[in-house]
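Quick one, C-alpha cells below:
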C-alpha cells in the first residue's frame, strides 16, 4: 500500500506527504528527522491509502496545488477545528 498523509503543524499549516510505510514516516516526523516539520510538533490528522504508487503521488501533487489545498481544508475543516481547540487548551 501507498499512503498520502496529512499532518497538522503547530504553525497552523497542513503538511502533505506520501509514503509506503506510514508508521515509519510519521515516527520520523515526530522524532524531528524531517527538516520541513522538525520544530512544528506534527500530529497526523488523516491519511488515504492507494494500491498504486503512481496514484498516491498524483494525489499528493494535486493536494499541493492551490485548488487541492482549498479542497483539503474543506474536507478536514471539522477535524482541524477540533484539533486546534484541543491544542489551545494545553
Amino acid at each position: 500500500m501507498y499512503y498520502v498523509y496529512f499532518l497538522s503543524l503547530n504553525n497552523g499549516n497542513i503538511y502533505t506527504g506520501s509514503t509506503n510505510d506510514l508508521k515509519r514516516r510519521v515516527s520520523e516526523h515526530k522524532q524531528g528527522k524531517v527538516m520541513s516539520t522538525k520544530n512544528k510538533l506534527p500530529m497526523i490528522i488523516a491519511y488515504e491509502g492507494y494500491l498504486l504508487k503512481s496514484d498516491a503521488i498524483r494525489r499528493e501533487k494535486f493536494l499541493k496545488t492551490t485548488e487541492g489545498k482549498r479542497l483539503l481544508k474543506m474536507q478536514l475543516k471539522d477535524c482541524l477545528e477540533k484539533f486546534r481547540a484541543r491544542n489551545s487548551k494545553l
